[in-house]
Amino acid sequence: MSVPRNPPVCSKCFKVNHTKYNCPEGRELINLDPQYTVRSSTEMCYNCAEDGHKRENCPLPPNPPEFQSALRRKGVEAKRRAGVIPGFKKDGLEEQKRLQRQQWQKEGRNIPLLLIEKELDDVMIWLEEFKRKTMSLRALRILQSEQDDDDAVVISRQTEVKAAEAELRFFLPRIKEIMNIAKGRRCDLNYLEVSFLESYVGSIEEIRTELVNFIMPEARSLANN
């Protein structure tokens, strides 16, 4: 005697004698209450990424080269478009920071320390290059005094240092301004770590030391003024 079994019930249309895989309603999802009938999105083939049919009914052979990973390419392209800022120019970021600093100065507001720290780093890098040029020139002058060599190289290096001295005249007012800003803001920086403050003040003193100890004697008077 066979044991009676309940007929299969479709999880899509909730009718009996078939399953969701051979449901005559296709991709139509019907709630128990007819007023909440919901239709799913259009069928899409995972073989060619075209709408209107499924992979098993695709007219193209499985995984055609021209459509291979089509869905992945579409997803990557959509992600790229979503993550790109239209018209963004990397060079414009520094200009934006410069204009922001000018606006803060006009409004009498304090410039954030992070922006000042970035300028200090730039100045220190420039001073290292300036130190290298001046020390090289001094070495060439010593060699020239000891040996009767052609002074064309020395003259060329002197030209480089003179150009660096002119650039130093441009740097000095900004360096003094940075120092004054940092000194004026020192009492207002209670939200910063003490260790960071000490290292920050130390970096200002490093700039002063670099200016006094490593620039050309002809330009040393500029640093002391």
Automatic annotation (TrEMBL):
SMART domains, A to Z: ZnF_C2HC
Taxonomy, superkingdom: Eukaryota
GO molecular function: helicase activity; nucleic acid binding; zinc ion binding
Residues of the CCHC-type domain: 45-59
Record keywords, A-Z: ATP-binding, Helicase, Hydrolase, Metal-binding, Nucleotide-binding, Zinc, Zinc-finger
PROSITE patterns cross-referenced by the UniProt entry: ZF_CCHC
Keyword Zinc-finger: yes
SUPFAM superfamilies the UniProt entry points to: Retrovirus zinc finger-like domains
Protein name listed in UniProt: ATP-dependent RNA helicase glh-2
